[in-house]
Amino acid sequence: MQQCLQRKVIHPPTAEPISTQKAISASTMNIRFRKPDSLAAHLVVTVASGLAVFVFAQLPAITLQAESPGVSHLQKTVSHAMESPMGEAPFSFNKSDYQGDLTKLPIGVFDSGIGGLTVLEAILSLDAFNNDNLRPESDGRLDFANERFIYLGDQANMPYGNYAARGKEDYLRELILKDTIFLLGKRTFESSTATKPRFDKPPVKAIVIACNTATAYGLEDVRQAIQKWDIPVFVVGVVEAGARGVNELISPTDAPATIAIMATVGTCASNAYPKAIDRVTGLAGKRIPTVIQQGSVALAGAIEGDPAFVKGSQESNAATIADYIQNDVKSLVETHRQSGAKEPIKMVVLGCTHFPLVEEEILKAFDTLRNADSNNDGNPPYQQFVSEHLQVIDPAKLVAKELFRRLATDRLRLASTQSSILQDDAFYMSVPSPDVAASLKTANGDLTVEYKYGREIGNLNLEDTRVVPMRVEMLPESSRKLIQNRLPQVWKRLAK
Q: At 301, phi and psi to the nearest 5?
């Protein structure tokens, strides 16, 4: 316990700093074409992690993450979580909390920021099942009415989508494990300046990774860690749900289709969505679609209200949310046009949980570009490359359904006569620790870009951020307005 109370000033890391301008200007585009060859001719079986995975021979093995030199450090994080039996040390939890009936425990949800609240909104709003017989039919009652949730937004370390591009994939994976350990444990701080932690947050019975980048890079790490910890907690991720959403909208008789993934640079670089879509549609015996990706460095940060990405801040490259959307959409469609593709984009997957907050703006950008007659000749150059009736896939709604089914299957769902041990939903966010040197913080108190992306993996006794209760007034005004206007169920609980 003593180590939790010691103060230690945190100084700059020795790694080479990353410039803010470089962080903002980078972008990623990935295009994959798939031929509708005979399924039988190319089907092979690959065994990975004890599971038989069916893939096409010409495709890479379908995994959501790859081994890296930092894997031993990640194993250290997993072991460290159990070294403090009572869960009092940083990044640890009490395994004894997972004995007996877990039904009345809340459900944990985490994201790099507020984007995961779109997933929580979908969960809280779901009415897709009969609450009495559990059949897939609406009964006029919210499916999670009795459940309670604990939400974590890792604001201090966001955006997650840029870590891999900075060569910090292992550090990102460590952050994802730390988020998981927080939800499993009881350790929080009352405020950023509190002198000691408190231990009154309940553990959770299930975890939803409400972040595409975290799912792409950390889902298997989390599942393997939970298996090693030997606790009866299941994990749901958003990428798998998004791929199933694509599959549901593709008919076996459909003409060739192009699916556009709009996500962070990190999610696109992982190729998690193309791999998952290939797998799901291939196993369904459907024509494997063309998948194109647009990685955005700045949009998630701009939605969060991060000064590094918002026009009006001191950063010269900052722009408006509308500017970022317009640029990303045009870059996506232009690259599709230059590729020589014939079929239009028919579906757009919102591959970042922040993006549903600006779904209307994204659709407007596609529509504007499709109808723009830039040559003034009556032939809009992009019209044939964007479908007139664009379908949008928000994985959040599919995650909500999967969560319900898993709770029911694992007999962890609260019955109508039961109540959670948590009276109200709880919201938390990370903030920089007061022990971080002032030179490593921006004018508004955030971690600098140089420090954030310069940290190294494995220092598990160092807390340069703290998890504190999320309060409405702590969020940027732009974020508050988006939540209030577009996430009514979340807002009602957050503002309570």
A: -65, -40
CATH topology for the 27-33+240-395 domain: Rossmann fold (3.40.50)
Q: How many residues does the chain have?
A: 496
Contact between 122 and 404 (Cβ < 8 Å): no
Query: The tokens of 189 are what?
Result: 């701080």
Q: Is 251 exposed, middle or buried (0-12, 13-18, 19+ CB in 10 A)?
A: exposed
Q: What is the pTM of this model?
A: 0.82
Q: Beta strands 149-153 and 234-237: pairing type?
A: unpaired
Start-to-end C-alpha separation, the chain = 33
List the structure tokens of 186. 């009881």
pLDDT digits (tens, 9 = 90+) for 115-168: 999 999 999 999 999 999 999 999 999 999 999 999 999 999 999 999 998 999
- Residue 185, token pair as written in the block: 């444990």
Q: What is the CATH number of domain 2-19+72-132+139-236+398-494?
A: 3.40.50.1860
Radius of gyration from C-alpha coordinates of the chain: 22
Tokens in use for 432?
A: 């920089």
Alpha carbons 402 and 395: distance in angstroms, whole number: 11
Give the phi and the psi of residue 80 in degrees, each rounded to 5: -60, -35
Q: Are 133 and 236 in contact (CB under 8 A)?
A: no
Strands (E), 397-464: 426-432
pLDDT tens digits, 333-376: 999 999 988 899 999 999 999 999 999 999 999 999 999 987 77
- DSSP line for 244-299: HHHHHH--TTPPP-EEEEEEEHHHHHHTHHHHHHHHHHHHTTPPPPEEEEEEESSH
Which residues of the chain does CATH 3.40.50.1860 include? 2-19+72-132+139-236+398-494, 27-33+240-395
Give the separation between CA 449 and CA 119, rounded to whole angstroms: 27
In sequence order, the 6+-apart residues with CB closer than 8 A to the CB of 37 are none
| Contact of 296 with 27, CB cutoff 8 Å | yes
- List C-alpha distances in Å: 468 to 44, 194, 273, 430, 433: 48, 10, 33, 6, 11
